[in-house]
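Internal tracking record. Fields below are filled automatically when a chain is submitted to the structure queue. Please do not edit lines marked as system-generated. If the sequence contains nonstandard residues, flag them in the REMARKS field before resubmitting.
Queue: standard
Priority: normal
Entity type: single polypeptide chain
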Amino acid sequence: MSRIVCQFSCGAASAVATKLALAQYGERAVVVNAFIAEEHEDNRRFAADCERWFGRTIDTLRDVKYDASAIKVFETVGYIKGPRGASCTSRIKRGLLRTFERPGDVLVLGYTAEEQWLLDDWLENWPDRPAITPLIDRGLTKEDCKAMVIRADIELPMMYRLGYDNANCIGCVKGGLGYWRAIREDFPERFERVAQAEAKVAALHGENAYILRHRSGPLKGERFPLRQLPAGKPDRGEQLPSCGLFCETAEQEYAA
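SYSTEM-GENERATED OUTPUT FOLLOWS
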């Protein structure tokens, strides 16, 4: 019988998706996480709390070649992000998780109700990979998931509590200008460390290595280094969690 593989990312959505999958599929479901060195240390506390909530051990994978470090990936391979995506994702996260998979596995995708477009992309790119979407199927939003975690008496990861939109790496290279202003304000040492890695890669590959680009004005579209990030309003992109119409119905599935 095929496994149901829950790729737990230390975020609220993946936690609720995992909880629902475990309730539905029982012992067929397994939980796996890719450890990333640049994540906030509180993510490990959240993972431990979720293990108790799940009643199941999380199988934590850790890359050895790059010490599970996104920054080491950037500096080693000389590439940060571009049309091929972010180099850290392919080497120490998604690529690592793929090593865990077996033929016939069914993946649990933690896309929320407002992320139908991500599911559409998945189905287009991976039409032959079986997957289920417990959050979309139940109409659960990101805010619903955060509220459901809180209602399970689990404190949200620190990055959420600081106002960020997710609990991934501190200094995610996919972030924009407002996000990086917030990182510069909240985590100046991490900001500088990523800027160092960016400068190292740019010395080899030029401005295409820069993470940010101007969004308006005469320089619109041109890339520039993190250290030249202009002053402006930080944007952590977060609102207080609330629970919508579908929360209670979904909670009853794993409370039974």
